[in-house]
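Quiz preparation item.
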């Protein structure tokens, strides 16, 4: 008698729609990425920022195209998927609803579990996709909406050490780029022209410089740049370059100071930190990376980041976070409601 073993595909389907990136990913339970698509919405550029209603509609339209594309790329069918997951916060509520509702619908339709994933967890676990990190490690999260420092003790065990009290790094870069009439998104544009500027051209403030907390503040720098621009009789390319360089340098100075303070604080508490991770879209900035390489070396730590294409918002990190949760036995939750202010 021949015993036939049913083939189990062991695959995770993930959707990320927290802001203006629409993304899908298919990951197997061994951690191999079988498909990954990221579609950046270009229709926000003329507004100089993300318009929530436009983002929600675009997600719905794009997902109808990239979901079947993902399956085709992975060479599988939808009923081969074992687990569905989606970003359920934080983010724009309309955008979160679009992605999570679609993933939940597919889970219900195929009688499979659904995992709600925290966008921030996706980011801080993303360096584990391509690196072996020792727990606990220090994660510096730099995105358009968040600037935070986490002690990552283990999967599902995170301690928030500090965060911005106003603007996030990415948001600040966007605002400065807008003041300089560069366009959107601002991060890559500021980085590009900063290479031609003088980092010492303008003396910008360092908010919370002498505070002992691990919190950040960036809105004061934006205000200082705004006043600086108004003082100029003419905004030449050289002035733009110098402002960008000075601003980027100040951002790096602030990030280094707070990270150093975090490492010293953890050292006093007897934590043995061997790895530092910088994650999020702003982690793709070369100057920030160079600064953190030196900082890590000073503390005999390894510096880690996800692959460049996984620094921004993407579904691969959501699938990866889902896999880690599945491995440690966290229960799926089909009835989890999206939360635009979801905490980690």
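Solution:
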């Amino acid at each position: 008698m021949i015993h036939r073993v049913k083939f189990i595909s062991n695959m995770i389907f993930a959707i990320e729609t927290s802001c203006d990136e629409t993304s899908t990913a298919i990951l197997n339970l061994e951690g191999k990425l079988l498909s990954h698509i990221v579609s950046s919405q270009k229709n926000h550029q003329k507004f100089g920022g993300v318009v929530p209603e436009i983002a929600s509609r675009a997600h719905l339209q794009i997902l109808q195209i990239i979901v079947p594309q993902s399956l085709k790329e992975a060479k599988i069918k939808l009923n081969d998927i074992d687990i569905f997951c989606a970003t359920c916060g934080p983010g724009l509520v309309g955008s979160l609803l679009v992605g999570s509702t679609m993933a939940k619908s597919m889970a219900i339709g195929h009688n499979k579990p659904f995992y709600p994933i925290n966008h921030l967890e996706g980011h801080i676990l993303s360096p584990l996709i391509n690196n072996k990190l020792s727990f606990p490690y220090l994660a510096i999260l730099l995105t358009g909406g968040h600037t935070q420092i986490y002690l990552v003790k283990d999967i599902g065990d995170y301690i928030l050490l500090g965060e911005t009290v106003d603007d996030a790094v990415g948001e600040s870069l966007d605002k400065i780029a807008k003041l300089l009439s560069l366009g959107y998104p601002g991060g890559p544009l500021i980085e590009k022209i900063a290479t031609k500027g003088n980092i010492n051209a303008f003396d910008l403030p360092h908010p919370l410089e002498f505070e002992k907390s691990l919190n950040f503040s960036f809105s004061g720098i934006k205000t200082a740049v705004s006043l600086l621009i108004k003082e100029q009789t003419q905004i030449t390319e050289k002035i733009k370059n110098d402002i960008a360089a000075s601003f980027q340098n100040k951002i790096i100075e602030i990030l280094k100071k707070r990270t150093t303070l975090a490492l010293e604080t953890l050292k006093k508490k007897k934590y043995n930190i061997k790895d530092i991770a910088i994650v999020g879209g702003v982690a793709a900035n070369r100057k920030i990376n160079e600064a953190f390489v030196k900082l890590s070396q000073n503390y005999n730590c390894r510096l880690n980041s996800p692959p460049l294409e996984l620094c921004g918002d993407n579904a691969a990190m959501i699938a990866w976070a889902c896999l880690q949760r599945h491995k440690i036995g966290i229960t799926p939750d089909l009835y989890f409601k999206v939360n635009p202010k979801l905490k980690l």
